[in-house]
Amino acid sequence: MSNNKPIQYGEVAQSEKFKKLIGSKKRFIIPMTVFFLLFYFTLPILTSYTKVLNNPAIGPISWAWVYAFAQFLMTWALCIIYSRKSKEFDRQIEEIKSETGGNSL
Q: Model's pTM, two decimal places?
């Protein structure tokens, strides 16, 4: 802490910058989570209740294997996207901390 004054967390939570931060995080994280869950659970649903992924995609490799591999790629992509976006969130957090007298790293 840069001064001896305790941080008023209620005031921080009511500040416009904090509300903007939380709003932007929700607008980013919720759609990403919904996309991830839909993409993830589509594979077991399609393989359990349909035969659409049983057709060959590349030689003897079926679409189920292609889709399963795509899940790994999707997970890596989402991690990379979040890592890049988190830098913006960290910048906003540092602004809020500097305005409220919080510790800077």
A: 0.75
